[in-house]
Amino acid sequence: MLKYLLTGIILLWSTLSQAAAYPTDPYALINEAASKTFARLNQEQGNIQKNPELLRQIIREELMPYVDNKFAAYKVIGNELKNTSAAQRDRFTLAFTDYIVATYADALAKYDKQKIEVEKPRDLGNDKLVSVNVAVIDPGKPNINVIFKLRQNNRTGEWKAFDMVAEGISLLSSKQSELGGMIRDKGIDAVSQMLEEHNRKPMKLPGKTS
To answer: What was the pLDDT predicted at 204?
Structure first.
């Protein structure tokens, strides 16, 4: 299940890369960005093998601009938000973002030219939240179905991703349970420090010990 979840993570954020003109709907966002991100992963494979930290760089450059990391971080903080200062929230958001980058880098290290099929667009009407179904196609293996959750910013009109669901498991909900409970028990500063220490660990590729 963890392998499938990590694969879903790969596809969630790898479908959200930079674009010359920001896509006007979540389906266009996923279709446009997926091809660009996978193309870069293919192009950089040799360099990634030499320097695994490049995976984190790719994520920062191609994926994170299209992730609503602040919204996700605040959802993880949950009801404790009212008990935190602006400085504490900023520190946690930065640490959480770096934590997600490291998590995605670990998942992208397992990338092996999988392909995806995005569901056909539908009329969104006035919906500000949308779930986009995507099939992860790995030759010789059963397809993996994941759901990407995106929200539209009321001010800018831009769509950004904030969650994914694979095998019935919500990434955001799992982090809310894991980190939200720790924030309640240990405090946000302790959790921020824990994340910062985790983020300093060097990137390693599967099967490599050094």
So the answer is: 86
- Whether 207 is in a domain gets the answer no
Q: What's the predicted TM-score (pTM) here?
A: 0.79
Residue 10 lies in a domain: yes
Q: Which residues fall within 8 angstroms of residue 41, CB to CB, at 6 or more apart? A: 14, 48, 58, 108, 111
C-alpha distance across the termini of the chain, in Å: 27
Q: Is residue 30 a contact partner of residue 132, using CB atoms and an 8 Å limit?
A: yes
Q: Residue 175's closest CA among 195, 161, 157?
A: 195
CB–CB of 77/188 below 8 Å?
yes
Q: What's at 109, amino acid-wise?
A: A
What whole-number distance in Å separates Cα of residue 116 and Cα of residue 59?
Answer: 18
pLDDT by residue (tens digit) across 138-159?
888 888 788 889 999 988 889 9
* Rounded Cα gap, residues 141 and 210, in angstroms: 30
pLDDT digits 0-9 by tens, 29-41: 877 766 676 777 7
Residue 140, domain extent = 2-199
